[in-house]
């Protein structure tokens, strides 16, 4: 018998509401894969409990007395790093924004708290929570990247833009670990960066607008949720909205649709990359960043086959090497680069 396979995932539940703690304990106790290691009613208790109990994963509330979830996340990641999933009870702008600061501090993901047992979506909420926490518990080493500065590559890489076929668009796809990676890239782009940037980031429901707002605080380029029919503008960043695939048209506009999920995702990176390959061909840049699964890997290969510049984030700077790793296996990446070199390449692109 493989004892390791039978080991339960020990979860620490952090929330200032006793009723929410009880609800979450019932949810985790209903799944034989989990064991509730303990509870904490505020951030200070959470920091102490992590050191005392050594859980495999922590679910962290944001707004709490004594010490909030953001400060607790920072302290835990400094003292005793452990996978942290933000479980937010209020999806107002302030709390969602704070959730992204917690992700910047080292938390892996943010989710809404499951709605009550009488809500028609309760079962779906519970399933999403259990799946996400299971996946995050497997990440044993949490890597964080500096907000500024260039990460030096271990070996020189030549990827100067092709002056004979200059890029006209940048398409980026990411999942777990993506928010910090994308923020690092956007905050380092020159303010006169000339190309439109299209982004698909896998995100739990209710967080994508806050993600765009958070990126806006660091980016020197305008960041917005994409709208159906709007024209692509140079130096603007467009985020695929919740529940819609994003693509580009041959007339230079954004199109949104509710077609079936691709690779289990809506929006999907695959949908965006396929569109960019068809419309822009060799005049595109495709970038696949950290994330679980393989969304976008095959379509990045399609972009490469059309002559586009294709980049996969390297293993060392990725939280999860799933999506970029699959692209590398397929031979889809023209270049495998750390975040600093991705920025270096993008900033070397001359305006049209």
CATH topology of the largest domain, which one? Rossmann fold
Detail the poorly predicted runs.
Answer: 143-157
| Strand residues, percent | 15-25%
Q: What is the string of helix and strand elements?
A: HEHEHEHEHEHEHEHEEEEHEHEHEH
| Secondary structure tally, helices | 12
Computed Rg: 20 Å
Give the SSE layout.
Blueprint: H1 3-6, E1 9-14, H2 18-29, E2 34-40, H3 43-53, E3 57-60, H4 69-79, E4 84-88, H5 93-105, E5 109-112, H6 122-137, E6 169-174, H7 178-188, E7 197-201, H8 208-218, E8 223-225, E9 237-239, E10 245-248, E11 254-257, H9 269-280, E12 284-288, H10 297-305, E13 309-313, H11 322-329, E14 335-337, H12 339-347
Parallel strand pairs: 1-2, 1-3, 3-4, 4-5, 6-7, 6-12, 7-9, 8-9, 12-13, 13-14
Antiparallel strand pairs: 10-11
What do these coordinates show?
The chain is of the alpha/beta class. The protein has two domains: 7-137, 3-Layer(aba) Sandwich (Rossmann fold), CATH 3.40.50; 169-347, Rossmann fold (3-Layer(aba) Sandwich), CATH 3.40.50. 36% of the residues lie in helices and 18% in strands. It contains twelve helices and 14 strands. The protein has helices at residues 3-6, 18-29, 43-53, 69-79, 93-105, 122-137, 178-188, 208-218, 269-280, 297-305, 322-329, 339-347; strands at 9-14, 34-40, 57-60, 84-88, 109-112, 169-174, 197-201, 223-225, 237-239, 245-248, 254-257, 284-288, 309-313, 335-337. Strands 8-9-7-6-12-13-14 form a seven-stranded parallel sheet, with helices on both faces. A five-stranded parallel sheet has the order 2-1-3-4-5, with helices on both faces. Strands 10-11 form a two-stranded antiparallel sheet. Helix 10 (297-305) links the parallel strand 12 (284-288) and strand 13. Helix 7 (178-188) packs parallel to helix 12 and helix 10 packs across helix 11 (322-329). The chain starts with a helix and ends in a 5-residue tail after the last helix. Mean pLDDT is 91; it is low at 143-157.
């Amino acid at each position: 018998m493989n004892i390791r396979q039978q080991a339960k995932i020990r979860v620490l539940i952090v929330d200032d509401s006793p009723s929410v703690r009880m609800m979450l304990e019932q949810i985790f106790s209903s799944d034989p894969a989990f064991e509730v290691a303990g509870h904490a009613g505020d951030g200070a208790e959470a920091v102490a409990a992590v050191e005392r109990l050594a859980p495999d994963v922590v679910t962290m509330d944001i707004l709490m007395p004594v010490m909030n979830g953001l400060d607790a996340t920072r302290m835990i990641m400094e003292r005793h790093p452990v996978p942290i999933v933000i479980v937010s009870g209020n999806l107002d702008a302030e709390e969602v924004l704070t959730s992204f600061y917690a992700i910047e501090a080292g938390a892996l993901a943010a989710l809404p708290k499951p709605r009550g047992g009488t809500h028609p979506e309760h079962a779906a909420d519970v399933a999403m929570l259990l799946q996400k926490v299971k996946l995050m518990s497997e990440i044993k080493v949490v890597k964080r990247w500096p907000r500024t500065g260039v990460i030096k590559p271990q070996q020189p890489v030549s990827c100067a833009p092709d002056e004979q076929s200059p890029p006209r668009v940048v398409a980026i796809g990411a999942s777990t670990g993506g928010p910090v990676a994308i923020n690092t890239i956007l905050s380092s782009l020159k303010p006169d960066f000339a190309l439109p940037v299209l982004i698909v980031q896998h995100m739990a429901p209710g967080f994508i607008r806050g993600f765009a707002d958070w990126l806006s605080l660091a980016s020197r380029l305008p960041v917005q949720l994409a709208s159906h029919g709007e024209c692509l503008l140079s130096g603007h960043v467009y985020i695929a909205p919740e529940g819609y695939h994003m693509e580009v048209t041959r007339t230079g506009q954004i199109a949104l649709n509710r077609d079936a999920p691709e690779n289990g995702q809506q929006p999907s990176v695959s949908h965006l990359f396929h569109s960019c390959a068809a419309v822009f061909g060799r005049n595109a840049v495709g970038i696949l960043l950290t994330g679980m699964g393989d969304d976008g890997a095959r379509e990045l290969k399609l972009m490469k086959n059309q002559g586009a510049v294709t980049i996969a984030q390297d293993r060392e700077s990725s939280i999860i090497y799933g999506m970029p790793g699959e692209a590398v296996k397929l031979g889809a990446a023209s270049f495998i680069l750390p975040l600093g070199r991705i920025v270096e390449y993008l900033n070397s692109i001359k305006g049209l």
